[in-house]
Amino acid sequence: MTRPVSFGVCVLACCTLLVCMACAPPRSGRVVVGAKNFTEQVVLGELIAQEIEAVTGQRVERRFYLAGSYLCQQALLSGRIDAYVEYTGTALTAILKQPLPSPGHRDAASLFATVSRLYADRYKVKVERGLGFEDTFAMVVRSSDAQRLGLRTISDAVQRGPQTGNAWRLGVGYEFESRPDGLPGLRATYGMKIDGAPRTMDLGLLYRALASGQVDMVAGNSTDGPIRALGLTVLEDDRHYFPPYEAVPLVREDSLQQRPGIQIAMDRLAGKLSADEVRAMNDAVDREHRDVADVVREFRKEKGL
Question: What is the CATH number of the domain that holds 280?
Fold first, then answer.
């Protein structure tokens, strides 16, 4: 025998349904591409968006400046974005929480295979073929200091720091200070001495602080435009501490199933970018203050895309 449902139960059920609907992540009717909050990420996000638009003939929504890897990952899993570009070393340590492989086992192919498998198993996300370049962490100093102190490698810098006791006034981004492939491991690997606490700041401010003498070394990225624009020196990671950081698009599997044009666009972009080309686009945006969409459009035209 079925009991009649009371009015109160109906009201409660309706309220619960409304709450669930309100909490559910909104899925755009368009493809949505995300990006972190620094120039290269916006350049790569725009590149992916333009290529999808060229293939599908449909407008792509941009959701750029999403802070760091964690926020992009949450946006991807919730369906607020369909794709963004990540770096394999960052994906392994910061997102997948895997230990760094030993220096002798840090080849790009093995790392890509591990990251691809874990993203598919855990998140139903496809790791696409690399865009053609790596953007590794880079310890950067003023070229005048590199020449004066005779610096070529990070080990050189540890032995010949500019401050008392070979210490360095260091500037880092917020993620680098604590992530497993960041500052703690770097200090342990090289025995680097820091003059006081490292100064943490937005990535866009690091090179200004270095150029103005507020810090003596920064943890930047190897493809950052200001390195070339300001004539700075990147120190060689002679102990091979940093893992490979191949730039790879991450795409939700259900988005690929619903919109096959995304895969065509990803295949067209695979292997198309060199590190020098990325540096040039970053520099055009950062130093020349050019519009990101125009810079990317010119690059795609040069590549015949």
Answer: 3.40.190.10
The per-residue pLDDT string of the chain (305 residues; one tens digit each, 9 = 90 and over) reads: 434 444 443 444 444 434 443 444 455 589 999 999 889 999 999 999 999 999 999 999 999 999 889 999 999 999 999 999 999 999 999 899 998 877 666 789 999 999 999 999 999 999 999 999 999 999 999 999 999 999 999 999 999 988 888 899 999 988 888 888 899 999 999 999 999 999 999 877 899 999 999 999 999 989 988 888 889 999 999 999 998 999 999 999 999 999 999 999 999 999 999 999 999 999 999 889 999 999 999 999 999 99
Cβ contact 199:92 at 8 Å: no
**Is the entire prediction scored with pTM above 0.90?**
no
Alpha-carbon Rg for the chain in angstroms: 22
In a domain, 23, yes or no: no
Instruction: Clarify whether residues 264 and 128 are in a common domain.
Output: yes
Q: Is 165 exposed, middle or buried (0-12, 13-18, 19+ CB in 10 A)?
A: exposed
- Do 130 and 251 lie in one domain? The reply is yes
